[in-house]
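Hi everyone,

Forwarding the result from last night's run.
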Amino acid sequence: MSFCQRFVGGRYSRNLVCAAIACIQSIPLIIACHQSNALGAQVFYADFESNTLPAELNGPGGSIQGTQGFSAVAGGVFGSSFWRYDSTSMLPTTLSLTGLAPHSTVDVGFLWAGIDSLDNEGFVLTLDGTQIFSGRWGLSVTPWFSTYSPAPGVFLGSGNFGFTQGGYENNDVAYDFAKEPSFKGIPHSSSTLTLTWTLTGGGNGWEGGSNESMALDRIEITTNAAVPEPQSALLLGLGVGAIAMSHWFNHRRGRVGIPYMS
């Protein structure tokens, strides 16, 4: 005789109670699935080490270049190549994705380098036209400053990492925006995605060239599937269990008769 049959005396409410027990026993699996889906699916990644610009990335103001001293930052996270924007014009850099599978949120990550004499300049990042970030840096003054206050782990370091003209134009900064909390779990369900980096000019305007530039590396987009929250699964299991137990106790007291179901 099974546990369910022994539990209900082998007769009434067997199917109902067994269903409740099965529901409760499935809660760990539901939670595990939720945790697995929370990791998401990587739908785009580019580290430029192959010296090839992905078709999804449109960056008319830049090119793939060697990382120079950035290759030694934070244990070499930048690798040997990144995408450097050094145009004297302020042109947007756009990542366009299509054919995305159903999802409810996205995670955005990338390395960013601010190079040389940024004069209260930086970038705005938009997702499908909605701004998700804005920051400016002043690297041509001592001490240098930024309007962005990074979360732990985002700021990788500052110093002279290359591309230096001389004089005050010798300070660079590096950030890992994959660790920025606001870039995790951004609501998004469309089958298409457009991510745009737009430069912001400072007091002297954007100069570009050997005077100032920026770089991107390890761009990553991850989609996260919509799955039930573990709390919801727990409440569902407990609710069904409570109903089954109520029927069982009422039956044992002779107040409710539920016919046997084979």
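The radius of gyration is 28 Å.

Cheers,
N.
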